[in-house]
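ARCHIVE CARD
SHELF: 3
SLOT: left
DATA:
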Amino acid sequence: MGKNAKPNILFLTDDEHRWDFYTEGLIEGLQTPAIDRLRRNGVTLTNAISNCPVCMPTRFTWLTGLYASQSPSGPRNGKDWPYGYGTVAQAMQRAGYHTALIGKLHSHSGATLAEDNLIDLEHHTKERGFDYVFECSGRELFTKPGCKGCRYTEYLKSKGLYEKLLDDYSSRVSRTEPKNTYSSSIIDIEDHFDSFVSREIVRWINDYSSDKPFFLHASIFGPHYPLDPPEEYFNKYKPEDMPVPVGVDDPEEIKFWQEQRAVYAAFVEFTDNRMGLVLDAIEKNGLMENTIIISSTDHGDMMGDHRLHHKNHPHDASVRTPIHIYDPSSKLPGGTVLHGMAEAVDVPATILEAGGEEHLQEAMRGSPGKSFLKYARGEVDSHRDFAYSEKGHLHEGGSCFRLVRTENWKYVCHEKGDMLFNMGKDPLEEKNLIDSPQQQKRVSEMRRMLATRMGSIMIPPTAIDSNVPIEFYKGIMP
């Protein structure tokens, strides 16, 4: 492939990867050499935040440049993405790029996939701006009644493995009770979901011959549950060596979460290995000098901290999603870690600036995104003063919240009670300072910060129920 005037852009993602499960992170001995390669040769935005720590909303944000609350689907899983929104992929097509999506997009709900095989729905993804589509459904959807399948399930059926894996997933999918969750995959490493997807990504890169630059969203599935790393990785970590979750003191509960953390750590390493194959293909094809690589995840996983499981929550274990950028044009030395705040919604804005020719609002009307390209290149000294995240409708209760996060502080408006954490001194969020007399000025400032951000979001009339009750604003804004 000849060198293009415009850079190729690879957006490389995994799923449910907790921010501190990397080399030199929470787990002693954990190795993530692929991400380490990006960190070593590029720049890390360590304080990036998911705008909604759930799969479908974040992926909607990555593509459309909108918060999930700006659409009728709202900041939650379970509803198909609405149509009619401009996408970064469409903008890149207009800018002369060949666009491709390989792996998980997650624009369709389980109910839809019970009606149609995802292969028959790929034309919707092409309409959203991708010239080439090789799409697979989420791993947990194997357990949904009547799921019609996707490219991966067709592969499993061709090898006589589908029913076997379906039975295994059905036995282990729970994350809140000790079912068959601490065990390795029952299929060989070459048949694993992430091996299947990474092979197609590598094949696509190896075969790419167009004169156009490419925009490729390569979307790996791990370490999202069900937690089934291949046998070769499973025994790398012992449960008794895993750190005890924050706020957990019951011995049986500790044992359960230590087992989960051990298998999750193994799955992180396997996922990173598959991502490394993609980076190898970029390098072997001589594309490193003309390719910008942006890598992140959609959300994290509580892994028992505060006696919580899975995603959905406002704590950093769930909502913090560092962004790694390899950019040959950057002026910053490799290994630079930037501490300014960033958001998932900034990713499409950055991709657009890196390769597009349209103004952000022309391509994705109403987008709150802000490109971090110049910040990651060392051309400006700051990006965002604070980041915003949301989950559900506040009047629904449960885990619904709105939050703002600065480098050192986090304020959460939660149905069960507001929270304020000093992230600089209390990174595990163990002490809620919301009622501290010394912090009432800060609480007021951050509440106003949140209300200002929420009030600035352009929400179409069809999605107005995604907003919060007017009572929230009383006493905060004039």
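SLOT: right
DATA:
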Amino acid sequence: MGYLVTKEKRLYFENQPVLLRGVGFGGWLNLEGYLWNLVTPYDRSRTIESLIQEILGSEEAKEAFLHHYEDCFITEEDFRYVASLGLNSVRVPFNSRRLWKNGALVPEEIRHLDDAVKWGKKHHLFVFLDCHAAPGGQTGANIDDTADDFPHLFTEPKYQDELVHLWVALAERYQSEEWVGGYDLLNEPLKPEYSPYEARLLPLYRRLVHAIREVDPHHMLVLEGSHWATNLAPLSGLSPEEMHDNLLFQFHKYWNAPDRESLSHYLAFQKQFNIPLWCGETGENNRDWYALTFPLLEREGIGWCFWAYKKMENRNGFSCFSVPPYWNEMESYSQGGPFPRHGKEALQGLLDSIQHAEYQDKTASACLRLPSTTIPAVSYDDWEVHTPRHGGVLFRETDPVSIAFLDGHQGAPNFHCPAGEPFASEDAMCVSLEAGEALIYHLSTPTEVFVDIVPHGDGVFRVTVDGKEGNQFFLSRGVKHLLRIQSEKDGSRLMSVELNKPH
């Protein structure tokens, strides 16, 4: 029997290197209002539950609805789809308030984690258990389901005790499950305004690690930094022995530049302590940003997990369900409007809509460079250039490649597109190439496929894959292919490369 383990900067399973590529099942076992198009105060599980109970009339009816919802929001079919894309992992956020009551795991809730582990094993997906909402709240925001946006976990010992008991119970339950990738101990602890409590984070992690290791010496333990999991500094106090006790260090990345410079502080931490990194959440943007971000992480040997897999209406995830009938009444009520007259119908429609969710293959293709998709030219993996850098775009600044805005202005692009909206026209970029200069892109597919490759821009370009010239190529399954786009003319501007399945 093998387990996912760390060795210096890499992960291994049965002595084979593993780069995590996966999705996060946000909204399944911990409700978040924005995934349902709801806003404050219905932005977290406890208030959404209270709204459901108000509409349905009793706690029993509310619980029955939630059980139906959890049964259909994520099913084995979702695991099958994720695996079919060539991904290898899923992150399952859970809410401790619902999972752990009166010192025991709640049978109606733990069965979903049991299912996730079972389906992960069947479809060869590592399952990461993610404590997204800890007892008392660890973040101080809606995502941790606190009642008052304060991280009581770090001020009240009773909540820390409860968290330890919960993780020990989970570790005892799953200690022999090899397809449990690891235990993600706390999601996004301590948002910036609560930084005075950062000194309490590492002692709590140490306590959790010690308690879990008493019952489960095998599974990887995942530690996230503070400030929305962007600051790893509070973890630097770990000793070398602690650092290498099968720990994985997680950060999150949203709405910023998808270049190496944006990762510099994480890479410096990795170099200093010789440990592996995982970008456990990134997404919530448009497909061009995905086509830039996920190859960037892989170039640096950093595993990733896309957030969020499934959402209402918004198609910038991997799965999308339509807005149910009468849902506008729910949205209006969350914004201070009248009580929903057709609330029951809206909730039933939600269940129906979820069961008819549609996979967003274009999103997956953008993340994974699968046909059919468009690769922005500036998402190159390597280069062959001989002229000095020019262009004036403050992006990938340490590369010698010349990057320019199409309209000729200078400055930094705006990558903040949280609803999946396209980049603004003034942020359109290209790569300037002289004759003989080339850009290189890595391609890999989970299945064998023929693909048409078409460069777009101003100039003349020569296309080769693995040294063979043409416009149509056969890509073998699971093999890294090298796509090379060479300029045949001085002053060429390459904007993008289109990958299409031949008709």
